[in-house]
Design goal:
Layout lengths: L13 H24 L6 E6 L5 E6 L2 H20 L15 H34 L8 H31 L1
Antiparallel strand pairs: 1-2
Helix pairs in contact: 1-3, 2-3, 3-4
Length: 171
């Protein structure tokens, strides 16, 4: 089965739908914020931060659209990836665990996709805030928390995949 995994039409789970709403609201909110406040956004915004959260490069406010574009492109590509879980690389895929594995791996991509959307929105908002003279929320602790969230998400779904394999083997 591993060489020729089946193509299944599986409904999106409620939590995937909710996470998509959070991701879309995050992007929509930051886009709307930029549009509504464009004239009051300083012409120079932070373009890069070091690990301590200090600005190491300044750029034009137009760079906000580059971040939006990259974030949106990642969101779209990962949304497409979600639709084809049969193309992912699985180990020990069986008829007993295929549906659970597909849903689990699709949920992993969904969570990461929306966490990245929220992260990009936060980064854009923080850059506008810093450009206006307020302190940055992007510091060492913020980076540690972001990394822990992403690693925690991957760890959870990898462990869940192992449990699904074990459960299917016991049935």
């Amino acid at each position: 089965m591993e060489n020729n995994p089946p193509i299944l039409k599986l409904r999106m789970t409620l939590i995937e739908k909710l996470f998509n709403v959070f991701g879309i609201l995050s992007f929509s909110g930051i886009m709307l914020f930029i549009i509504l406040t464009w004239s009051s956004i300083p012409k120079r915004i932070p373009g890069h931060y070091n690990f301590a959260g200090e600005v190491t490069r300044w750029g034009g406010r137009e760079e906000l659209f580059i971040l939006l574009g990259i974030g949106l492109l990642l969101w779209i590509v990962m949304t497409v990836m979600e639709r084809f879980p049969h193309l992912y690389n699985y180990r020990n895929l069986t008829e007993a665990n295929v549906e659970g594995q597909y849903i689990n791996s699709r949920m992993l991509v969904n969570f990461l996709k929306n966490e990245i959307a929220i992260l990009f929105s936060f980064t854009i908002w923080n850059s506008i805030r810093v450009a206006r003279g307020f302190p940055s929320y992007m510091n060492t602790w913020a980076l540690v928390i972001i990394i822990l969230i992403l690693i925690g998400t991957m760890t959870f779904f990898i462990a869940r995949s192992a449990q699904l394999k074990k459960d299917a083997a016991n049935d």
